[in-house]
């Protein structure tokens, strides 16, 4: 079990860092829908240029972005390869059983490769330039309209902030429990499948019991500090829109405009 | 005074939900099994959510776990509402089968198969198709080997997990 880095935030100082996390999160979500608009090589070139500009804007080392792509590189290549072999149409270069390599297939594989890479790049930009807590606040803000559907957004927000706060704690706890049981002979990486499946229970039960205890303690602590439900409370961490969010909006309007002009009908 | 008691129970449950969500996020960072078929442990979190909180709150927990994991680790392959929906449906199905019900082998088998079919094979393939423009047939072929092997391993783990967690619940 390797040590996992919690939070991928890398401090920096560029326009993207100064944007409101809500603006960044919305931009990131919008980007996925905007990428659907690209359907020929000009539009793919435009969207690649715009994304690379955002990547350069972070002023971070290329290695940061390569680390984002690296775990998925085989998946991306394999996906593109499958697309290459299963798309038919256009000029056929090679055929064997159900596999064909055609001109449509080659173009499609390249498009999918670009799409995959761009989506990963843009979400890496979001996660490295924004602190997890800010992203969570932004998500809470985006969920707010669900209030009109009678969704208990405040409660969901409470659950979210507690989960966010306890991930590192529980992570340490898990490693500690594993080490404690290893020291008395437990083996998590050896033996047959059933043995391994059984080995998970001695890990999970102490974790679960300590979670129950934490929940009781925390509930008592919150109540003794006057928590009586999420309604009628003020906010200490407040998000503020800045002029940079307007730049981003302008940037997106320009991008969508160009894509709409140049996309194949 | 009565309302105060109500808030208290609810608050404790909400906090426990938050912590179980955190547990799911932590567990999904671990995996077991030989190198060829790594089984992520995230599904244990889904089972706990469904078993402890039922379909509705379990589904809420599933959705929140996806958001929290995205905020902390960054979503592999981009933020996309579809994967959040997948994370919601998993605990929902487990909740339908496990919440306040005795643990039976058939429940585990049916629930696991349903989750595999609906969420992993159905929805996630659909999202990959929408997101990357990948051909559905190609996406299915890519997914098939894993989804044929992994559910059986998941069932074995689910059985032991549910057995041991139900013991904790009775003792409380």
Top keywords for this entry?
heterodimer; A: 265 residues; mainly alpha; two-stranded antiparallel ribbon; 10 helices; 67% helix; 3% strand; B: 172 residues; two-stranded antiparallel sheet; 2 strands
Please identify the oligomeric state. Answer: heterodimer
Count of helix runs of chain B: 5
Apparent shape of chain A: globular
CA-atom Rg of chain A in angstroms? 24 Å
Description of the molecule:
- The complex is a heterodimer of chains A (265) and B (172).
- In chain A, strand 1 and strand 2 (99-102) form a beta hairpin.
- With 265 residues, chain A is mainly alpha-helical.
- Chain A contains ten helices and two strands; from the N terminus they run αααααββααααα.
- By secondary structure, chain B is mainly alpha-helical.
- In chain B, helix 2 crosses helix 5, helix 3 runs antiparallel to helix 4 and helix 4 (105-132) runs antiparallel to helix 5.
- The longest helix of chain B is centred in the C-terminal third of the chain and has 36 residues, at 136-171.
- Chains A and B meet through helix 2, helix 5, helix 6, helix 7 and helix 8 of A and helix 1, helix 2, helix 4 and helix 5 of B.
Quick summary of this structure?
The complex is a heterodimer of chains A (265) and B (172). Chain A has ten helices and two strands, in the order αααααββααααα.
Lay out the secondary structure.
The complex is a heterodimer of chains A (265) and B (172).
Chain A: H1 15-18, H2 21-34, H3 41-57, H4 62-69, H5 73-86, E1 92-96, E2 99-102, H6 103-129, H7 132-143, H8 153-182, H9 193-224, H10 243-262
Antiparallel strand pairs in A: 1-2
Chain B: H1 2-27, E1 31-32, E2 39-40, H2 42-73, H3 81-98, H4 105-132, H5 136-171
């Amino acid at each position: 079990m390797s040590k996992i880095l919690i939070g991928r935030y890398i401090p920096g100082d560029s326009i993207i860092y100064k944007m409101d996390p809500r603006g960044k999160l919305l931009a990131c979500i919008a980007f996925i829908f905007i990428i659907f608009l690209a359907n020929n090589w000009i539009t793919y070139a435009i969207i690649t240029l715009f994304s690379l500009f955002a990547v350069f804007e972070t002023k971070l080392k290329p290695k940061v972005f390569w680390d984002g792509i690296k775990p998925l590189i085989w998946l991306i290549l394999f996906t593109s390869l499958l697309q290459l072999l299963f798309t038919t149409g256009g000029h056929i270069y090679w055929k064997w059983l159900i596999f064909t390599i055609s001109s449509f297939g080659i173009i499609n594989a390249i498009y999918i490769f670009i799409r995959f890479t761009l989506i990963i790049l843009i979400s890496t930009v979001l996660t490295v330039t924004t602190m997890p807590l800010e992203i969570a606040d932004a998500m809470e803000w985006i969920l707010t309209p669900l209030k009109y559907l009678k969704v208990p957004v405040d409660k969901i927000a409470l659950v979210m902030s507690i989960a966010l706060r306890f991930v590192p704690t529980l992570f340490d706890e898990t490693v500690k429990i594993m080490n404690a049981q290893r020291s008395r002979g437990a083996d998590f990486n050896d033996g047959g499948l059933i043995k391994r499946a059984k080995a998970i229970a001695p890990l999970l039960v102490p974790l679960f019991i300590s979670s129950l205890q934490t929940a009781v303690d925390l509930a008592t602590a919150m109540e003794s500090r006057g928590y009586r439900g999420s309604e009628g409370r003020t906010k200490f961490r407040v998000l503020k829109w800045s002029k940079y969010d307007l730049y981003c909006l302008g940037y997106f309007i320009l991008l969508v405009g160009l894509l709409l002009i140049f996309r194949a009908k | 005074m009565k309302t105060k008691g109500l808030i208290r129970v609810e608050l404790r449950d909400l906090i426990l939900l938050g912590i179980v969500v955190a547990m799911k996020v932590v567990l999904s960072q671990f995996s077991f099994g030989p190198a060829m078929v790594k089984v992520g442990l995230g599904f244990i979190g889904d089972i706990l959510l469904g078993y402890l909180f039922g379909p509705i709150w379990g589904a809420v927990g599933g959705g929140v776990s996806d958001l929290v994991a995205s905020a902390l680790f960054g979503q592999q392959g981009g933020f996309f509402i579809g994967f959040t929906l997948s994370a919601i449906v998993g605990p929902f199905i487990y909740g339908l089968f496990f919440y306040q019900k005795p643990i039976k082998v058939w429940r585990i088998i049916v629930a696991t198969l349903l989750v595999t079919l609906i969420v992993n094979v159905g929805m996630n393939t659909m999202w990959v198709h929408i997101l990357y423009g990948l051909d559905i047939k190609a996406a299915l072929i890519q997914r098939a080997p894993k989804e044929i092997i992994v559910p059986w391993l998941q069932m074995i783990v689910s059985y032991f997990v549910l057995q041991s967690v139900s013991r904790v619940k009775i003792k409380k």
